[in-house]
Every structure is written in C-alpha cells, then in structure tokens.
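Exercise 7.
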Amino acid sequence: MTLFVAVLIGVHGLSGFADIENGQMFSGLLTLSFTAGVLWFLVRRYRAIRRYENETYDWYVRQHPVRDGSRPSCASCGANFLQTRRLMRYTYTREHFCGACGTGLYYSDER
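Solution. The predicted structure, written as tokens, is:
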C-alpha cells in the first residue's frame, strides 16, 4: 500500500514540474513541496515498519545473548525487568522495553 501511494504522489510531483515549465511557478512549487512532504512521511513510515519486522526477539537474543536464566536482559542497564506496550498507529506491533531504564529492546506482532 505504501508503494502504491508513493507512486501516486510521484506522478503528482511530476505535474508540479509541468506547472513550473508552463510558467506557473507558485503552483508548481506548492505541488512539489506537498509531494516532498508526503514522500518524507512515507519513507519514515516504511523505515519504522521495516524496523518492527527486523528487530524481533530472535534478533535481540542473537545480538545480546542470554546470560543466566531464561529471560533476556537490557543491553543498557542489565536489568531483567521487561515490559510491553502497544505501538498503535495501525502497526499491530508491541514493543518490549526495559522497565528500569525505558530502552526499547525488540518488537513482536500483536496478532
């Protein structure tokens, strides 16, 4: 879906170049600035979703092996007090974070 919206916005941005070429400078610049803003938002959203998909429990355990016990510990402070919160924003993802220092550790699906 994100790719589809990016293509539509890209086509919309091309109309901004056409406006500038036809002498409508303000309209063309306004269209290009709107297009740049939406593309910036889409790139941020895509990177966040990729991060949620890549930084899973297995990834975290590979990066920071479990020392003693069966629960992973925080890489920043070493505490084993892990908590979970929903990220919302239509991601259906939960963030597992350190309850002592608040550092985000890994993500899991909410489903």
